[in-house]
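To illustrate the input format used throughout this study, we show a single complete record. The first block contains the structure-token representation of the backbone; no residue identities are included at this stage. The design step must infer an amino acid for every position from geometry alone.
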């Protein structure tokens, strides 16, 4: 039995409109994308502008030039080991492949500099430079760097070379992962999209409240009340 029909159907109407808008949001009406995809791309492009840590990290890696390291790296398989060996030899290091095992000896600063150069190209959406440099897919290049340096971090810690391991971990987190995740995304300034950003935030709050009040009115109209 509905106690207050006006309040109940008012809430029901709000709920219907809520789902109509939700249907529009998840329809491809925003340049071929749905609302969530459009906003996700927008905020990714805005955040990319402030995620370039390469110059700062390079200052750290440059301090390790002249620091020779020997590392035993375990790769996924022989093919990845062969692909990854090229990354190190391009930096002037020696890399010997034995199955999935990769034994590297070289200047850590130069190795990381080469990694930063590849990552910078990817961050700038210049994947062609990277793929032409090694003659295979640019995403795979960065993935191989990630795998190799993860293994290097582990091996350096085993050797108690903690400063070297720390800078390798920094490159992985701040450079490789960032460049890989933002590859193909065009950076934008938040000031250029301020209107859309403000609208999306206000809309999110208002839309959430809309749903809450719709449910509240329906339950109160139905006769359900909170009692103390």
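Output of the design step:
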């Amino acid at each position: 039995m509905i106690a207050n029909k006006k309040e109940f159907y008012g809430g029901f109407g709000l709920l219907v409109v809520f789902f109509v808008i939700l249907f529009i949001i998840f329809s491809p009406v925003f340049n071929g994308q749905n609302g969530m995809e459009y906003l996700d791309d927008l905020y990714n492009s805005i955040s990319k502008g402030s995620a370039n840590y390469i110059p700062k990290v390079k200052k750290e890696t440059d301090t390790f030039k002249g620091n020779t390291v020997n590392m035993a790296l375990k790769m996924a398989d022989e093919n990845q080991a062969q692909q990854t060996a090229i990354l190190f030899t391009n930096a002037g290091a020696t890399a010997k492949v034995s199955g999935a095992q990769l034994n590297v000896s070289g200047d850590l600063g130069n190795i990381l500099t080469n990694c930063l150069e590849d990552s910078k190209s990817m961050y700038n959406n210049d994947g062609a430079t990277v793929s032409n440099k090694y003659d295979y897919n640019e995403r795979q290049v960065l993935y191989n760097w990630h795998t190799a340096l993860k293994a290097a971090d582990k091996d350096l810690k085993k050797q108690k070379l903690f400063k070297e391991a720390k800078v390798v971990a920094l490159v992985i987190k701040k450079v490789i992962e960032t460049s890989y995740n933002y590859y193909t995304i065009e950076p934008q300034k938040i000031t250029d999209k301020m209107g859309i950003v403000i609208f999306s935030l206000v809309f999110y709050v208002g839309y959430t409240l809309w749903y809450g009040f719709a449910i509240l009115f329906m339950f109160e109209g139905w006769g359900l009340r909170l009692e103390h």
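Structural context for interpreting the output: The two ends are 23 Å apart (CA to CA). The chain has nine helices and three strands.
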